[in-house]
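New here. Your pick:
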Amino acid sequence: MNPKVSVIIPAYNTETYIGKAIESALEQTLTDIEVIIVDDGSNDKTVEVAKSFTDQRLKVIVNQQNLGAAAARNRAFRAAQGEWIAVLDSDDWYAPKRLENLVSLANEINADMIADDVYLIKDGVTSPWSTLIQESGERIDKIIQVDIVYFVENDVYGQPGLHLGLSKPLFKREFLIKNGIEYDEEIRMGQDFWIDMKCLIKGARFFIEPKPYYFYRSRPGSLVYQSQLPRLNQYCKATTSFMQQDIVKKNPTLMRALSYNLSVYKKNLAYLQVVEPIKQGKWLTAFTEIRKYPGFFYDFMSRFNSIVERRIQYYVMNNKSSFDIYPNQQRKRKTTT
């Protein structure tokens, strides 16, 4: 008999963290699960740590070379037998009742995808500093259904909003198979956002549970700490490609939302193509890029107060969250009275 949930854990050089991820999956109150780890060519002890667990529900698959997170996830998808598929990054972890609560709720409301709020926690710190919903400024106190336009409009790079591309939905495996949905292996950053988009454009019923059960660890070495230039280039290409689909062209509201996102990506890309060389002391390259982007100085001044504020928070007030998740995001924190 097939398990209720397949937990898939793509891993690459996370020997320090993967043990906690595996434990959190195996210790779920919903025990009818399988856990599939796909190591993507790690050169540390990630595989050794994974294989040290003797639970029969655990399966370890090893790629002999690094193929990228999307390829690793697809390999796990193909091996999965569960009614639901849950993705767990190898440096994150679940609260004990996450799967039990989300599967029960998903079955009750006939969802194809269901996600929860996400705890945001700094590496080496014991308590989360916030959650995804709190950082969005939204007040969500009940289950909501998300359509594709809402999803896009609230996930604009560098701007406040409910960035659901950072959530980790459970997917109904039957829906994925029926619609031939997998991760795009050409996209090496932001894969979660784009598989969610694939599902939504195919009519997936996507719901958000406002309670957090997923712990998202931000740490040096993870993608959010790396240069944003490759990420923005990927976003531009992926957005342009998505907009070329006939089903997307027939939705003018969605096209407007995607066009706006694309313009934001391009503006930030042009800005960073000047800033990155300056940081590296490559002044000639920076000058060349400024000539291509005459609006740079206006753009820089419009960001100046935010840049100074974030550095004060980080270095003076010791607020390490000020550089997390999305750079230059003007945060609207949820206040309580």
